């Protein structure tokens, strides 16, 4: 892909993301026009002094809908770039950010808070902190199990991730089975399927800066990611320190995934399908794959969240159900395509 075409595609995707976010803010029981949305945004940013929006409309736009849409964009972008990095790390087309046990570990932490009252002294931050600690704990265990003679084995990494995920999922299911709190059980199930309902401006800073940090670090190392797709021997020949780079990927991808899972719950299929869509569009060069994955992932999750709010209105469907409904047929179709294979540019 030429530089001009890449720049044009990035511009189109940024425009599409802004349009999607505007439309998503409009969706709801209170009718909001695009003009009011941008007036409120610019007034909050200090660009405009006056706005025709009423106080109620301003609260709905700025305090309720905007944080949720921004969080959807952050989570979608984060899961997409993590999925792309993990697929290069293990050179496996069905790998996703949760393959290291992050989701299962986070679920144990969240269930412990909701059902057992752990970390209750932290109030509204208890679930997020417990979920993050659970995710990091799972990754540490997987990482330790994957090391053989001081080196990381990709096969052991995959197997350890599967095994730890199963153990932690069993722990979550045991807590659910033993609990007598019907409301708590529903809350845990809702969290495990993903939700952006708790989005607030106060809890967006950590996911945003984590995404920015990991995105920059991955983009700076796009050549090493490209080399991994060529195989271990080729990557080593090209000067990639495989063990050090694997630790780097595991550390930062797990950190970012743990952060977003802590605030949004487990949202599946985003990190699995978005990198494949991008590779079919622009090939396997990670200098192109990472930024485009971030933008398409953000757009996808904004629309998925919109659907989650609309389908059962005034009730809300867990966003993980929407992503699974969209992701499963696409993944099956992609696998059936004769021309597509993991790691090529077709």
Question: Overview of this structure, please?
Answer:
This is Iron complex transport system permease protein. The structure is a single chain. This protein is an all-alpha fold and 346 residues long. The chain has 14 helices and two strands. It has helices at residues 3-26, 34-44, 55-90, 102-116, 126-146, 154-178, 182-192, 205-220, 222-229, 232-237, 242-264, 270-282, 286-310, 319-336, and strands at residues 147-148, 151-152. Helix 4 (102-116) runs parallel beside helix 6, helix 5 (126-146) runs antiparallel to helix 6 (154-178) and helix 5 runs antiparallel to helix 11. It is globular and about 65 Å long. The mean pLDDT is 88.
Portion of residues in helices?
over 70%
Largest beta-sheet characterization: 2 strands, antiparallel
List low-pLDDT spans.
Answer: none
Strand order of the largest sheet: 1-2
């Amino acid at each position: 892909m030429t530089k001009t075409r890449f720049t044009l595609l990035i511009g189109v995707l940024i425009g599409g993301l802004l349009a999607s976010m505007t439309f998503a803010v409009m969706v709801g029981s209170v009718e909001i026009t695009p003009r009011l949305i941008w007036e409120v945004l610019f007034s909050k940013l200090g660009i405009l002094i006056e706005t025709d929006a009423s106080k109620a409309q301003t609260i709905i736009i700025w305090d309720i809908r905007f944080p949720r849409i921004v969080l959807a964009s952050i989570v979608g972008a984060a899961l997409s770039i993590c999925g792309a990095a993990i697929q290069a790390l293990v050179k496996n087309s069905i790998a996703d950010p949760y393959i290291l046990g992050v989701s299962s570990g986070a679920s144990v932490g969240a269930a412990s808070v909701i059902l057992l009252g752990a970390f209750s002294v932290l109030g509204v931050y208890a679930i997020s902190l417990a979920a993050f600690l659970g995710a990091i704990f799972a990754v540490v265990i997987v990482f330790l199990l994957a090391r053989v003679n001081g080196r990381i084995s990709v096969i052991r990494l995959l197997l350890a991730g599967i095994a730890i995920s199963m153990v932690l999922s069993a722990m979550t299911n045991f807590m659910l089975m033993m609990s007598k709190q019907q409301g708590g059980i529903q809350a845990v199930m809702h969290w495990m399927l993903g939700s952006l309902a708790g989005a607030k401006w106060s809890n967006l800073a950590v996911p945003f800066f984590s995404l920015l940090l990991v995105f920059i670090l991955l983009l700076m190392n796009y050549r090493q990611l490209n080399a991994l797709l060529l195989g271990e021997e080729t990557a080593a020949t090209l000067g990639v320190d495989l063990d050090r780079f694997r630790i780097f990927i595991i550390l930062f991808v797990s950190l970012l995934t743990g952060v977003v899972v802590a605030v949004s719950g487990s949202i599946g299929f985003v990190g699995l399908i978005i990198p494949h869509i991008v590779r079919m569009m622009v090939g396997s060069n990670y200098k192109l794959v990472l930024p485009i994955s971030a933008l398409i992932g953000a757009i996808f999750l904004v629309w998925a969240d919109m659907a989650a709010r609309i389908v059962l209105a005034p009730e809300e469907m867990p966003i993980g159900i929407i992503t699974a409904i969209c992701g499963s047929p696409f993944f099956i179709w992609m696998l059936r395509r004769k021309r597509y294979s993991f790691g090529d540019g077709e």
